[in-house]
Amino acid sequence: MSSKSKIQNFKRQTVLHKGQRTRLPGVYVAPEDVSIWDIIKPNLGKDFSRFTVPVFMNEPLSFLQRLSENVQYNYLLEMAAKCEDDLERAEYVAAFALATVSANHKRLSKPFNPLLLETFELERNGVRFLAEQVSHHPPISAVYAESDEFTVEGTVEPTLGFWMTKLIANPHAHLKLTFKKTGETYSWSAPKCAIYNVIMGKMYMNFTSHMKIESSGQYNTVFSFENKGYFTQKGGDVHVEGHIFDGKNKIKALYGNWTLFLASCDPNDFKTHRKEYVQQFNDSVVEKDQGPVLAGSKILWVANQIPKLFDEQFHFTNFTLSLNEMHSGMAEKIAPTDSRRRRDMKALEEGKNEEAEEFKHKYEEQQRVRRARKVGNVPMWFAKDDEGHWSYKGDYWSRDYSNCLDVFDTSDNNNSNSKSNSASASLDED
């Protein structure tokens, strides 16, 4: 084996937010433990983003909450904003873009479809995040996040299709990052993915497309996920590699494990030693928290430590475990449209599947009634601009929600939600 690279053990930080829970009360049902084919078969030829699955096959999160997982590694953007060197800034932006997909590892359960006008907010680590479901058919979620250094805005319009024995998911997630001090922008779209063995066998997922990060400045980045390295039906292909370009010239190589780490190095060094590196990657990836690092490389990102019960709790990270908590005092503060108020999700995470199904059906029926009456069909916090893009209108954080629709009938459950988590922390965590 070439001496140019060596196996490194990555020390992953355990990041917990003040007072958060470290496990869910319910029990996870693995998708392969049920007959997904019996559910998919009647829906062949239909738009899979619109068909309904039994509630126990969902994960206890709204799709809007899942989008907020991007905030987990916002420190990379804070570091990028402080970089005087344009190339170094591009490296950290690339690391952030890759880190945003890391939470997809082994996540094979479907999040709850948001109701029209449903929202989710998060204030954490100096960042304010807001998402709103601005369209139901087709499903479109608009997002906005802001810190002192940057803004991130975009839309997600997911589609799901079936081909042979696999599901093809295209998030159609288009994000734009703007640094406030310089006005420099970076834009990218999340990669497509495929879920295999949906009829029988152990299910796993792979990303199946490139991810290109385009800058208004000098440097662009392209990541590739297409079976470049280690492959196993137990976990799919976790290898990722790419390059930062100056025009058509490769000036930095990027490589790593999209569930664990990302490093950068000289592109000629990576090209010369790639064969040996991939072999080392294949040998090391079966071990916990290991990967090969080429001499002279810069480690840009290491994923946070996952919970001990990761495989038993929907493969949620510690960050994800905290998203549906209703802390003491939060019920009086957040909008009546916030995802945390969904009683179907709360019931599911407590293992009360029948109750979850009842509330889910109730919400969907009420939405159909509103649509028929043409009530509650205009988004509150986002509006289409002249180019047809959804843009944040402002004012959400003034917390005047008097004109918000009470889509979850919160009047009868505020007290029970807040009391059940009275020992937890406040909304503004860390």
UniProtKB/TrEMBL annotation:
Gene3D superfamilies in alphabetical order: 2.40.160.120
GO CC annotations, alphabetized: cytosol; perinuclear endoplasmic reticulum; plasma membrane
GO biological process: lipid transport
UniProt KW keywords: Lipid transport, Lipid-binding, Transport
Origin superkingdom: Eukaryota
MF terms in GO: sterol binding
Membrane among keywords: no
InterPro entries xrefs: OSBP_sf, Oxysterol-bd, Oxysterol-bd_CS
Listed Basic and acidic residues bias regions: 338-359
Presence of the UniProt keyword tRNA-binding in the record: no
One Pfam family it belongs to: Oxysterol_BP
Region (Disordered) residue spans: 337-359, 408-430
Sequence ranges of Low complexity compositional bias: 411-430
Family: Belongs to the OSBP family.
Entry-linked PANTHER family: OXYSTEROL-BINDING PROTEIN (PTHR10972:SF209), OXYSTEROL-BINDING PROTEIN-RELATED (PTHR10972)
Protein name: Oxysterol-binding protein
